[in-house]
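Data availability excerpt. The first of two example chains:
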Amino acid sequence: SRQADQAALELETAKEILAEVFRIRTSEVDEMILGRLEEALIISDRSNGDGLWPREFRLDG
C-alpha cells in the first residue's frame, strides 16, 4: 500500500541519518534498533518517565 511504502521510505531515511550521525553502517543501526526493541520488550513498564524510548512505536499517517 502507499502508506506502507511511505513508512518504509521514512524508516530507511531515518536509518541513514542515524548511520551518518553515529558514523556507523546502516546494518549496525538495524542492530541498535533491534537491541533496543528487545530491551524494551523485557522491561514491562516504560511509563515512569525514565527518558528511555517507549515500548511501542506508532506511525500516524
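And the second chain:
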Amino acid sequence: MSDHSRCCAGHHDGKPRKRSGQDVDPAIPLAGPISTTIVSYAARVRHRVGEDAVDRHARELHARASYDCWNGLSEKDQELWRHMARLDLTR
C-alpha cells in the first residue's frame, strides 16, 4: 500500500503517536467485561513488559494480518492489537 492519503493522510514520520495516560483516560472505555479485562490486564503486566515492546509487537502482528496502515487505525483498534501483543509476550 504505497498511497496512504486515504488511511492516514500520509503521516509516516516514524515516531509513534502520543497516547493519553492509560490510568486516566484509557483508549478503550470501561463499558463492559471485555473492555474491563483489557484495561486491567494492561495494568497487571505493565511491570513485566515495556510499552515500547508491546507497541512494536502490536505493529508486527498487525502488519502480518492486515494491509491497512497502522496510523489509519482508530485508537481503540490499536489498543486491541496492543492487547493481543501483551497476551503474546506474557505467555
